[in-house]
Amino acid sequence: MRNTTESPIEDDFLQAFLSLSRGTVLVGASVRDLVDRAEAHPGSVFVGSQVQVGKYRADFIVTGAPVGWNKTEVICVECDGKEFHSGREAIERDRRRDYHFACRGIHTMRFSGSRLWSDPFGCARDVFSELGIKDGDQEPRTLVDILDTIIDNIRRTDVAAQYWRTP
Predict the structure, then answer these.
(1) Which listed site, 61, 78, 122, 164, has its alpha carbon 20 to 30 Å from 94?
(2) Within 10 A of 106 (CB to CB), how many other CB atoms are there?
(3) What is the pLDDT of residue 45?
């Protein structure tokens, strides 16, 4: 998963989220791409990893449009490891980032590294709850299934397409 995330705690969150959701990871997707897909597929969940939003980059942008709702929910998930999110300057930087996202209609959910290490599935369930989508009647997928899905999605993205083309 490290080709789509930047840290082990992000890996843990993404694995937990995908195993509960059967969601789709879109590498190199914009917020608009994620919203468009969610609106086209009510009840589905789409996850963008390392998504640029203005001058900031989100660890994850998660979109979902619950069946029967008129609005697609957009959530930024930040995985806050101690190394980059401790201290007064880091807290102020995170507040500015959260405000930037909020001004664009994106709610930010922050999870500490210790919570992600101890309960990545609980963190994923919190995101589903915020989306208004029930996570759970599906059986968790195996890691091989998750990796196959990620590889398929990487092959389909415009950003990664150049790496899969033969000369």
Answers:
(1) 122
(2) 20
(3) 83
Q: Which are the contacts of 95, defined by CB distance < 8 A and separation ≥ 6?
A: none
Single out the residue of 20, 43, 7, 19 nearest to residue 144, CA to CA: 19
Which residues, other chains included, contact 145 with Cβ-Cβ below 8 Å and sequence gap of 6+?
Answer: none
CA 3, 141, 80, 76 torsion: positive or negative? Answer: positive
Rg of the chain over Cα atoms, rounded to whole angstroms, equals 15
Query: What are the average pLDDT values for consecutive 10-residue runs of the chain, which has 167 residues?
Result: 68 85 72 88 83 90 76 88 66 87 92 89 88 54 57 52 46
Q: Are strands 73-80 and 107-112 parallel, antiparallel or unpaired?
A: parallel
Query: Which pair of structure tokens corresponds to residue 17?
Result: 């989220």
Cα→Cα distances 74→83, 116, 130, 156, Å: 27, 21, 10, 22
Structure tokens of 149? 């899905």
- The CA-based dihedral angle spanning residues 32, 74, 3, 24, taken in that order and rounded to the nearest 10 degrees: -90
Compute CA distances 92 → 8, 96, 107, 115, whole Å: 24, 6, 17, 21
